[in-house]
Amino acid sequence: MHLFCLNWKRKNSMQDKFMIRLQSKAVTLSFFVILLVSCQQPDNGESFRSAMKTYFNSIVQADGPGGAVLVMKDTTVIYTDAIGWADMNTKEPITTRTLFNLGSISKTFVSNGILMLQQQGKLSVEDSLLKYFPNFKNKEIARKVKIKHLLTHTSGLPDNRQVSKDSVFFLTANDEQNWYPVTQTDTLEFEPGTRYQYSNPAFNALALIIQQVTGMPWQRFISETIFVPSGMKTSTITDGPHPQSGVSHGYTKIAGQWLEDDFGEEPTFCAAGNGGVWSSVEELARYELALRRATFLDKTSIDSSFTIRNFSSWKGDQPPFIGWSWFIDSTPDNRKVISHTGHQGGFAAYYMNVPEEQILIVVLFNAPYDVYAFRENVMTQLAKNNWLNEVRN
């Protein structure tokens, strides 16, 4: 994000096509815009909402797949909108309550589930994988890799799934079937805790660990312990084939036509641990408020998840930049930024929290629109309308 010098490197992966990776950059012009405008007096938000609506309408087609957006300052929603069709066949319109696939934002729910079980003394992030997966072909690898490495994408385990060779199988493969090939590896790509390499199967494994420890489907555990207390009444998690109604469909434009690209079309879409949560912008705002209030997880655990996890043996080209699944950076004046993105099939999603400012930005699309450009526009308009607090001296 140029505005806060967050120039993220996008990383391709099977389930999440564009993950973010930190690169330090000099302060850019956009940040100085904040410095110049932060002393202006805020209006009642009308100019902000008008500018956002104009921008939203300029990038999303009203007669095609679209999206929903929500911006919250403190506990007040200062802008929310929805444009486009949730289903191109039925012409069901998108609303701020429409459920979208969150892609890899789902990983934050799995991570919080692991932290809840640790809080209850039922597991530890220091546990090795051999404790939960004794069928690992190479026992020494299983002993080396710990839960904390899965949470931070630092396990060194290869993604050795043969998706391109067996795409039909992976159209319906569940968490266990996506994780199994990894358990049969004979080699690590690097020693655990020394480098970063984004891993979708790691979160299939974490979901299966939740399932083992709780003795119930992990989807049910997350629903009962996070969705319910947070007031996320309609949010759901993929568990096999997903309903054709009640959720939006993802679309990709090919040869000038929008074609459906979700369950049944996109391999590994059923692997829910890494990308199976479905929610709306309204209910993700409730998720954020539940995190701020420590509703389902104690404050110590939440603060830990929002803290960069450092490893003494680190050898990566970049310093560590990830907490317990969350991507973390800071503005030039040390305002922490916590975020996660999600890309899966035709869906694109972005969730960003600036805790010091109590600002939440949620963008959900059912077509591959640019969530990064949208985020930057939101932050620019927030600055112009003085919804950001004054920059500290």
Give a structural overview.
With 393 residues, this protein is an alpha+beta fold. The chain has one domain: Beta-lactamase (3-Layer(aba) Sandwich), CATH 3.40.710. Helices cover 32% and strands 18% of the residues. β1 and β2 form a beta hairpin. α9 packs across α11.
Task: Please count the helical segments.
Answer: 13
Give the name of the CATH architecture: 3-Layer(aba) Sandwich
Q: How many runs of DSSP E, i.e. beta strands?
A: 15
Radius of gyration: 20 Å
Which H/E pattern describes the elements? Answer: EEHHEEEEEHHHHHHHEEEHEHHEEEEH
How do you describe this structure in short?
With 393 residues, this protein is of the alpha+beta class.
Question: Keywords for this structure?
Answer:
six-stranded antiparallel beta sheet, 15 strands, disordered N terminus, 393 residues, 13 helices, alpha+beta, Beta-lactamase, three-stranded antiparallel beta sheet
Task: Summarize the helices and strands and which ones pair or pack.
Layout: E1 9-11, E2 19-21, H1 29-37, H2 46-59, E3 67-73, E4 76-83, E5 85-87, E6 92-93, E7 100-101, H3 106-119, H4 139-144, H5 147-151, H6 167-170, H7 175-183, H8 201-214, H9 218-230, E8 236-237, E9 251-254, E10 257-260, H10 272-275, E11 277-279, H11 281-292, H12 299-305, E12 327-330, E13 336-344, E14 347-354, E15 359-365, H13 371-384
